[in-house]
Amino acid sequence: MKQKVIILISIVLLPAALTGYAQNNTVINAFPYIESFEGAYSSFWKIYDIDNDGNCWKNNSGSVYIKTGEHSIQHGAALTAQDGWLVSPEISIPANENLSFSVWMKNQFSYPDCTNRILISTGSNNPVTNRSDFVEKWSSAAATAEIWEEIVISLSQYKGMNIYIAFQYQTPGKGGHGWFMDDVSIISLHDYDAGVSAITQPVEGAGLGNSETVTVKVKN
């Protein structure tokens, strides 16, 4: 039993490496990578307010719309037509590694004519001059309100390539929902697709002894 506990703890400790790479990279080439939108991310993530009304992606510190930490990023609703883009730094995908991209998102209100999109470009990072470079990988035209949802996209087809990941918020001008995002991550896919995502018991610092029963949460 003691040997099993040691194995479980070693598995759980692996995700801590996600915090080992700062988000202040002009080119992302070390993985795992995580961006939680705390600190000086704005110099490396590009914002394009194509509708040019001043309402676009910005930092959020409202606790209800933060997944972890003290900040997330948001695109607010508006009564005018919206076309706001948030584009990642350049991401250099290793030729010999399968990577997966994920992001947590939450919508304030639900509006059927408001579309959230995730797109990938293997060319330009500028949707103003090179919109055709961006290929849609996910979209939601009828977003569920007030629920955190994780979106996962495989990057396996981009091995050995440099890419940009973009988030597009678009409405026809009749109103819309607020789109909040947090905890963008790019991690390596392993031969197995399940792992320990959390230790639920025992609680850290609760007078642990030499031998404890460990309860874990597994995510597939």
Proportion of residues in helical segments: under 10%
Count the E strands.
15
Judging from the principal axes of the Cα atoms, what is the shape?
Answer: globular
Q: What is the succession of H and E elements?
A: HEEEEEEEEEEEEEEE
* Low-confidence runs of at least 5 consecutive residues: 1-24
Question: Describe the biggest sheet?
Answer: 7 strands, mixed
Number of helices: 1
Gyration radius (Cα, Å) is 19 Å
Rounded mean pLDDT score? 80
Distance between the termini: 24 Å
Q: Report strand %.
A: 35-45%
What is the SS-derived class?
Answer: mainly beta
Key features of this structure:
single chain; 220 residues; mainly beta; 7-stranded mixed sheet; 6-stranded antiparallel sheet; 1 helix; 15 strands; 40% strand
Q: Can you describe what's shown?
A:
Strands 1, 3, 6, 7, 9, 10 and 12 form a 7-stranded mixed sheet that branches. Helices cover 5% and strands 40% of the residues. The model is unreliable at 1-24 (pLDDT under 50). 30% of the residues are buried. It contains 1 helix and 15 strands; from the N terminus they run H-E-E-E-E-E-E-E-E-E-E-E-E-E-E-E. It is mainly beta and 220 residues long.
